[in-house]
C-alpha cells in the first residue's frame, strides 16, 4: 500500500476514534514529512485526498484542520442522494442499490 494511503487511513482512523477532534490542526506538510522520514509530496498527497473527502480543510496560514463530522458528511450526503436518484431512475430496488453499494465498499 502506498505511503500516502497509509497516512490518509491513519488520519481517518484517528479522527473516527476521537484522537483528532474537529478543529485540531495537523502538522505542516514539511514538518510531518521530516518527522516520518518521507517525501513532502507523500504528506501533501495524503492531505489533498483527505481534503477532497472532507476529513480536513486547508485554511491558508491557519494550516490544515480536522473538520466537524457534519462538514465531512455533507458531500457524502449529496453523493448518496445522487446515487439513490440514479438507482431509482434505472429501476433498481432499494435492496439492489444497497447490494451494489456494499460491493463497491468491499463489504462481503
UniProtKB/TrEMBL annotation:
InterPro entries listed in its UniProt record: Tscrpt_reg_HTH_GntR, WH-like_DNA-bd_sf, WH_DNA-bd_sf
The keyword Transcription belongs to this UniProt entry's keyword annotation: yes
The UniProt record lists the keyword DNA-binding: yes
GO terms of molecular function: DNA binding; DNA-binding transcription factor activity
A Pfam match: GntR
Record keywords: DNA-binding, Transcription, Transcription regulation
Residue span(s) of domain HTH gntR-type: 1-69
Protein name listed in UniProt: Transcriptional regulator, GntR family
Species classification: Bacteria, Bacillati, Actinomycetota, Actinomycetes, Micrococcales
Amino acid at each position: 500500500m502506498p505511503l500516502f494511503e497509509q497516512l490518509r487511513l491513519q488520519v481517518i482512523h484517528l479522527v473516527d476514534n476521537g484522537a483528532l477532534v474537529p478543529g485540531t490542526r495537523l502538522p505542516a506538510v514539511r514538518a510531518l514529512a521530516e518527522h516520518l522520514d518521507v517525501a513532502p509530496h507523500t504528506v501533501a498527497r495524503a492531505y489533498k485526498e483527505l481534503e477532497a473527502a472532507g476529513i480536513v480543510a486547508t485554511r491558508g496560514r491557519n494550516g490544515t484542520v480536522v473538520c466537524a463530522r457534519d462538514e465531512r458528511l455533507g458531500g457524502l450526503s449529496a453523493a448518496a442522494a445522487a446515487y439513490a436518484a440514479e438507482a431509482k431512475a434505472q429501476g433498481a430496488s432499494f435492496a439492489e442499490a444497497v447490494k451494489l453499494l456494499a460491493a463497491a465498499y468491499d463489504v462481503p
